[in-house]
UniProtKB/TrEMBL annotation:
The keyword Transport is annotated on this UniProt entry: yes
Protein name: STAR5 protein
Transport is among the record's keywords: yes
Organism: Tricholaema leucomelas
Keyword list, A-Z: Lipid transport, Lipid-binding, Transport
Entries under SMART domains matching the protein: START
């Protein structure tokens, strides 16, 4: 059987390494909400993307919007998340989850499913981390009507802004093998646009939460 807790911990360690490593990033998209950069992934034959932006809300409010829990608000504001379910709660902080995504990019990308082990962690400085990586689970065999995609170590850091309780730095890392037979050009244009939309929709969601 897979050691889910150990895999989750390893994904969190990778997140911390990515966060501390400034080498090799190239900016590929810039909006008022986020700077997106990339470098080749060390995990698979694709890219690791980094999003950096500051949100107009407290870390708690941002976390409320992004935390990977059953019945969370992610399915409401994140247009890439059609459904999110917890398959197995491994511990208080680790769970195996299944995410279904709708078709995207003018339907060039068909609906996908992802099965990940997810870890939630809080640091002493108030930073909150959600880290994930792909796993297999007996309750989640591949579905015939969905393409199985694979997330490699990915996640988000909600970092408090010192002296600014209503501002949060959100640092996110994405590295996803979408599976299927997509042209590389589609994949390479999809992710930066997608990350920009993620930050834009999240900004709207935290403002709504605060209202």
């Amino acid at each position: 059987a897979m050691d889910y807790a150990r895999l989750a911990e390893a994904a969190a360690e990778k997140m911390e390494l990515y966060r501390q490593d400034p080498v090799g990033w190239r900016v590929c998209r810039h909006t008022s909400e986020v700077a997106v950069s990339w470098r080749p992934s060390a995990e698979f034959a694709g890219n690791l993307y980094r999003g950096e932006g500051t949100l107009p809300a407290s870390p708690q409010d941002v976390w409320e919007c992004i935390k990977p829990v059953a019945g969370g608000s992610r399915t409401k504001w994140d247009q890439n998340v059609k459904a999110f379910e917890v398959i197995e709660a491994v511990s208080d902080t680790v769970s195996v989850c299944r995410t279904t995504t709708p078709s995207a990019f003018m339907r060039i990308i068909s609906p996908r499913e992802f099965v990940d082990v997810v870890l939630m962690k809080q640091y002493e400085d108030g930073t909150m981390l959600s880290a994930a990586t792909n796993v297999e689970h007996p309750l989640c065999p591949p579905q015939p009507n969905l393409v199985r995609g694979f997330n490699y170590p990915c996640g988000c850091f909600c970092v408090p802004s010192p002296g600014e309780p209503e501002r949060t730095q959100l640092l996110s890392f994405f590295q996803t093998d979408l599976g299927g037979l997509l042209p590389q050009s589609v994949v390479d244009s999809f992710f930066p646009a997608n990350i920009a939309t993620f930050y834009s929709n999240l900004t709207k969601a935290v403002k709504t939460l605060k209202a």
